[in-house]
Amino acid sequence: MNFVKNHYKKLGYERKYLDIRLKEFRKSMFISLIILVFGIVLICSFAYFCLFSNYNLLDKFAKSYMNSVSYMYSSDDIIIQIANLCSNFESEENKLRCVNNFFKEFYNYDEHLNETSIFRSPSEIINNGGCCRDASIFYSSVFSLMGFENEYVFEPNHVYNKVCGEDCWIIDQTYIEKIN
To answer: What is the distance between the alpha carbons of residues 103 and 79, in angstroms, rounded to a whole number?
Structure first.
C-alpha cells in the first residue's frame, strides 16, 4: 500500500484527501477481486457444463446449424425428386428403405478435408461423395419433405440420423435399423 500512498503524495494530495483516495483504492481493488473470482467461477461452470454434462452446448449448436443447412437443401431438385419418388411407397419402412437404397447407390465416403466448405450440397454428394455430416443433412432434408421427424445423433467422430414416423429408425450412411 505504500506505493499507492507515495503515488498520491507525488500527485499533491494532502493527508485528509490521501486517506480518502486510499479507501477508494482499497474498495476498487476489493470489487475487482470479487469480479475476477466471479468470472473464474463462471468460466469453470461453463466449461464443466459443456464438457462433462449430458447437455452438450456444442452438440446443440451443431444440430441447429445442420438443421438450417438441411432446410436450405429441402428446396434442391435432387432432394425433392427423391422425396417424391420414395413417398409413393405404402409402408413407412419401404419409404425409408427407398431413400436409404438410393443414397447407398451413389454414396462414396470422402471427408473433403482440403475444402473450405463444411458441408457438400446434394449434387456434390452425388458426384464427389461426402462424410457422415453430409449424409445426415442429406437424409434430414429428404425425410423432412416426406413428413418424418428427424434428429441428429452425435457420437465421437460420427453423426447419423434418428427418424421417427409411426416407429423410430436409425439411419446411417449404409444401413437402416428399427429401434424400440
So the answer is: 11
